[in-house]
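Try this one yourself first.
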């Protein structure tokens, strides 16, 4: 090709030179002019050749530079992508520079495409890592989207990509576990809220708005949210435990009140579920609204109603026990507990200062104490009753002896005569009975370290007073008998030779022993009539006798 071009050049130049020679011949150009033109042509040809050579050198240098850059870029890509160097790719092929450059263009293009693909893979993985890390850290969507994900293009090796992928898998696993924990917490909150009768969405939204499905936001799974969820669950569990204990206490109180007041089964039906909570564990409660505040309020209202009813019935029961205590005390003529003490106990029942059971225990204890004391007093009281009967007979006998018509023939004269005989026997036993009573009473007082009261009056005082009065009565009778003798002698003296003196007839000298209202001891006072030997008559007579004996007594006696 070069020889043909040179030949063409020579043919063209020779033709032109011939044409120039012909022109010069026709013109008649001188030789020196011809030489000058030829020199100029030679100079111009050299300049054109030099330019072409310089241009060719520049083009060759540029090709060398491109080839070097391509080789360096290929080597760099192999290093960045972590690829092993392929000798076939790096080895220079024989041939001109353009051929060598063309041989590197294809592997270079492949490696560049591979780098771009690898960069995309890194960016996708790193963006996922960044997104999941932001979710775990609790960052907002705005912060996540506004932050660019940088990719280190100096290390795009498979090893580095695998490290990022492993990190991504770890974060994905952590996110999955956190989502499961969040779902578990939310489920627990919903169940607990249903049991407590609360709105679960409100409790969930309080923890974080994104946890509410209606918000449309991705669920926040940060450590702070998980901690708040755990606190919310603990708070609900504590509330459930507190309400369960409260309902169990209310249920037990309801059962006690029902049993105490014999509430019929139909009235208990409404609160049977409540009473069934007494032995149930918190983990076994699943029914909705089982521990709601409304149920607690209803139970409290019912307990309050029953408690008020119980207070009323407890007062009735207390009054019955009080009446029983008073009956025991009156039957045994003991001192009845003061009204002030009773009012104090009733006030405690009304105000709830003491439990009703404690007050009933106090009342039962008083009754038991009274029964025990009545039992210990029984032997003495039996002798007191005998004394009372003997006193009745004594009073009757005194009345009988004062009756001037007692020996007249009448319908009941023989019966009264027999009764008089029996009465004299009983009256003759009174001194021994009194001595026995005094002895037993003193022994009882020494044993109990308290005064034996009979209708709030010391029995020993009554007995001693009776002995004294009886002695005075006997002395008075003796004095009357002596006085009658003197009067008889005086009448005999008056009825001597001069007959009976006017205004000197027999007259009745009243007994001076009419003390103490004249009920316990006679002294011109009529005895109590209509007295029977029943328990009531004995008690009434004894009470009258006691009041008679101590009507003038001043100062209270205390056991």
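Now uncover the answer:
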């Amino acid at each position: 090709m070069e020889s043909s071009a040179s030949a063409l050049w020579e043919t063209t130049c020779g033709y032109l030179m011939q044409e120039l020679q012909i022109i010069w011949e026709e013109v008649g150009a001188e030789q020196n002019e011809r030489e000058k033109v030829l020199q100029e042509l030679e100079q111009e040809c050299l300049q054109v050749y030099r330019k072409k050579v310089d241009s060719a050198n520049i083009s060759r240098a540029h090709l060398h530079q491109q080839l070097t850059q391509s080789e360096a870029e290929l080597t760099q890509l192999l290093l960045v992508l972590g690829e092993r160097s392929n000798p076939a790719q790096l080895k220079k092929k024989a041939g001109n520079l353009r051929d060598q450059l063309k041989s590197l263009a294809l592997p270079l293009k492949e490696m560049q495409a591979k780098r771009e693909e690898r960069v995309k893979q890194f960016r996708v993985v790193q963006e996922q890592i960044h997104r999941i890390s932001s979710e775990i850290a609790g960052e907002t969507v705005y912060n996540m989207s506004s932050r660019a994900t940088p990719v280190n293009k100096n290390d795009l090796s498979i090893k580095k990509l695998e490290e990022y992928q492993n990190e991504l898998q770890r974060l994905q696993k952590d996110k999955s576990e956190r989502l499961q924990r969040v779902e578990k917490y939310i489920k627990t909150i919903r169940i607990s809220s249903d049991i407590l009768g609360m709105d679960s969405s409100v409790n969930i939204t309080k923890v974080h708005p994104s946890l509410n499905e209606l918000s449309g936001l991705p669920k926040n799974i940060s450590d702070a949210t998980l901690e708040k969820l755990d606190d919310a669950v603990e708070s609900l569990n504590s509330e459930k435990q507190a309400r369960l204990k409260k309902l169990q206490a209310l249920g037990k109180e309801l059962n006690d009140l029902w049993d105490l007041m014999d509430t019929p089964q139909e009235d208990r039906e409404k609160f049977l579920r409540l009473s069934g909570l007494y032995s149930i564990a918190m983990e076994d409660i699943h029914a909705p609204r089982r521990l709601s505040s409304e149920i607690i309020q209803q139970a409290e209202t019912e307990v309050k109603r029953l408690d008020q009813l119980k207070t009323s019935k407890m007062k009735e029961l207390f009054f019955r026990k009080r009446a029983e205590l008073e009956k025991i005390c009156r039957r045994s003529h003991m001192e009845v507990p003061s009204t002030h003490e009773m009012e104090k106990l009733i006030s405690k029942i009304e105000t709830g200062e003491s439990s009703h059971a404690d007050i009933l225990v106090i009342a039962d204890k008083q009754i038991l104490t009274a029964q025990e004391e009545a039992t210990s007093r029984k032997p003495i009281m039996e002798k007191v009753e005998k004394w009372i009967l003997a006193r009745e007979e004594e009073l009757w006998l005194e009345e009988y002896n004062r009756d001037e018509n007692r020996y007249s023939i009448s319908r009941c004269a023989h019966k009264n005569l027999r009764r008089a005989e029996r009465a004299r026997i009983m009256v003759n036993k009174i001194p021994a009975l009194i001595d026995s009573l005094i002895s037993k009473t003193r022994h009882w007082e020494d044993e109990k370290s308290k005064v034996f009261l009979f209708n709030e009056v010391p029995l020993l005082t009554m007995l001693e007073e009776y002995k004294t009065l009886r002695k005075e009565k006997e002395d008075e009778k003796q004095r009357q008998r002596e006085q009658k003798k003197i009067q008889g002698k005086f009448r005999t003296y008056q009825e001597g030779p001069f007959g009976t003196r006017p205004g000197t007839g027999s007259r009745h000298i009243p007994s001076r022993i009419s003390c103490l209202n004249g009920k316990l001891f006679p002294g011109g006072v009529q005895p109590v009539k209509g007295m029977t030997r029943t328990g009531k008559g004995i008690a009434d007579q004894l009470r009258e006798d006691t009041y008679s004996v101590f009507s003038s007594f001043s100062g209270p006696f205390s056991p």
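Discussion: Residues 499-559 have pLDDT under 50 and may be disordered. The CA atoms of residues 388 and 432 lie 14 Å apart.
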